[in-house]
Amino acid sequence: MIDSHCHLNVDSIKNNFDKIINNSKKNNIRSILSINTNPNNFNEHLNLIKKYKGIYISYGLHPCEVKKFNELSILNFDNNCNNPLVVGIGETGLDLFHSKEFIKEQIKCFELHIEASIKHKLPLIIHQRNSENEIISILKNYLNYNLKVVFHCFAGSKNLLDFCIKNNFYISLSGIVTFKNADDLRNDIKKFPLNLILIETDSPFLSPVPMRGKKNEPAFIKYTAEFLSKFYNLDIDVFEKITDNNFFKLFNKTKRDNLLL
């Protein structure tokens, strides 16, 4: 299994880092992608994860952090994306749930991430909240560039799923899909192509059932994988193989033999 999206530099994880990684290995997690959300923290984040094999990192600025870092340029990406551990751009996107105050800045920043994704040929990791139409509208301007995209922690509409299918964009399913109130999401993803699905924890957030109420960690991806394998009526080994292959195909700087050690 692979946790395709988590935040290992959050205090609740980094303060117990060795234990968290050992828990992951016990649950047969073979690789982890830790998501950067602010360039100011990137070097510290990188130093945290590089002592272990099988852990990768992204480079980007979360839309909710845009107001705190307004001088991001393509040079920031040029100076960091050649690192072999940097395998994705983001997380980026638009968040109109928490605030619309900096929407112009969010859009500008999102477009910069898209341009960096194209230039460095790295997948774009998208955060979407109350912003489906705006994100679709922006992405349509770049579809001729053969974008590689994953909508992380997917909880979007059927319209967004159709847009993803049409453009071979991936979705990443989190513990949300196990929640009791996620019937609409489960109904919508029933027929989504399995070759475009990743799984993630988004830890330390959104712990899946049966770990609700606990701080999420990469080891808990096991429960989401087990839930989804039953949901899709697949043997767990088959589902793991499918989602692992999807991860390595999308994040093609990662290496299959670079196992979590």
Walk me through the topology.
Elements: E1 2-6, H1 11-14, H2 17-26, E2 31-34, H3 42-49, E3 55-59, H4 74-78, E4 86-95, H5 103-120, E5 124-129, H6 132-139, E6 149-151, H7 158-167, E7 170-173, H8 183-189, E8 197-199, H9 221-231, H10 236-250
Parallel strand pairs: 1-2, 2-3, 3-4, 4-5, 5-6, 6-7, 7-8
Describe the structure.
With 261 residues, the chain is an alpha/beta fold. It has a single domain, classed as TIM Barrel (Alpha-Beta Barrel), CATH 3.20.20.140. Helices cover 37% and strands 15% of the residues. It contains ten helices and eight strands. The chain has helices spanning 11-14, 17-26, 42-49, 74-78, 103-120, 132-139, 158-167, 183-189, 221-231, 236-250; strands at 2-6, 31-34, 55-59, 86-95, 124-129, 149-151, 170-173, 197-199. An eight-stranded parallel beta sheet has the order 1-2-3-4-5-6-7-8. Strand 5 (124-129), helix 6 (132-139) and strand 6 (149-151) form a beta-alpha-beta unit. Helix 9 packs across helix 10 (236-250). The longest helix has 18 residues, at 103-120. It is globular. The relative contact order is 0.17. The model has no long low-confidence stretch (mean pLDDT 96).
